[in-house]
Amino acid sequence: MKIDITNALKFTGEKAYAKSFDYALMQMETLNSGSGAGNEFLGWINLPQSLTEEDIEEINTSAEIFRKLDAVIIIGIGGSYLGAKAVIESLSGSFDRDTPEIIFAGHNLSGEYHAELIEHLKNKEFGLVVISKSGTTTEPAIAFRLLYSEMKKRFDKETIRQRIVAITDAEKGALRTLADKEGFKDFIIPDNVGGRFSVLTPVGLLPIAIAGFDIYELLRGASIAQDICLEKNSENPALKYAAIRNILYVAGYKTELMVNYNLKLNYIAEWWKQLYGESEGKENKGIFPASVSFTTDLHSLGQYIQQGERNLFETVIFVNDNTNAPVIPSDDDDLDKLNYLAGKDMEFVNRKAFEGTLQAHIDGKVPNILIELDSIDEYSIGFLLYFFEFACGVSGYMLGVNPFDQPGVEDYKRNMFKLLGK
Ligand code: PA5
Known about the structure:
CATH architecture of the largest domain: 3-Layer(aba) Sandwich
Low-confidence stretches: none
Structural class: alpha/beta
Helix content: 40-55%
Distance between the termini: 48 Å
Bound molecules: 5-phosphoarabinonic acid
Oligomer: single chain
Strand content: 5-15%
Order of helices and strands: EHHHHEHEHEHHEHEHHHEHEHEHEHH
CATH class of the largest domain: Alpha Beta
Largest sheet: 5 strands, mixed
Number of domains: 2
């Protein structure tokens, strides 16, 4: 992974950036020494290098059992689903996927969605992975109750026991009580890892392994990122990213658009939005994280980005891989006037669209941070996830907030419970 901030520096100036970088270094110390706010939630920092061979094998063994089924439903919301969804979507084929079918549930309260899911599962052999750190979140709890009840109608007790895995706290919460009582296989979410930083625990690893991906490679990428992100030098990508986005924020760029040129990265953006939005959006501060997928959204939001309110900056993820790109054929009639592209592959066109857009947006006064990946595979995605997590910790401390709590998430729940008569 490479990060290029040249086209953001044009807007901030080298001097201000250098100052911001020094501050990022200081805040990295705060993070690493565990002396900052929320320091009881720093378990994620060492996750890639602390998981043992046995931990990974235990996850792979459980995954194997689930891989024989027609469908596996991953039940969870927020940090208990976005990491898995992001990795699975980025690594899966767009159309043809291996069995089992991976379905997410409990990440919304739509009655229609869950009714259609129950119908969809009617003749399928399915299993459930239910994930909740608190073990009390309403959305996944309702989805689990519904699907568990469907299971009880169709499968015997022993089959059900083999087809449910709970991922939750070691001791607390309703899901822990239920898992112990019913004898479900379980994995523990460490106390010191918050939901949005939990993708490299069983929360993300088990669903990713069930989907057939190599979690060793994912962790290897994250582990290399861990080494690099801890280096105290000016090339540290996490410090660069934290430093530049904070100085842009101070200069009035309050919205960060994560841009991709490959639809498979859409859910990486969703995961990133939760990571940064929940970590930094507090005390009336914080960059608003948003996302677009190009070139699709150039035909919708492109107008706004080019000429709307000037408070945006972009972080583009571009993948330099044309291995599977179809070559544009020549056509004798050339009625569509595309013969000038004949013999070029589609990623060549995608890259030119990216280069042209980048320049247009810079001309339109949108600063740009560029992240380039060589390919989308387990290794590079593992690297990317850790890089964003580490930069988020540093960036939150630079902003002066506790990046590891989420007090605002409780407010809607209080109102909802009151209205529900809880
Ligand atoms: O990052 C967070 O802490 C939240 O988004 C949680 O992950 C989300 O609310 C789900 O919580 P739980 O895993 O306790 O069900």
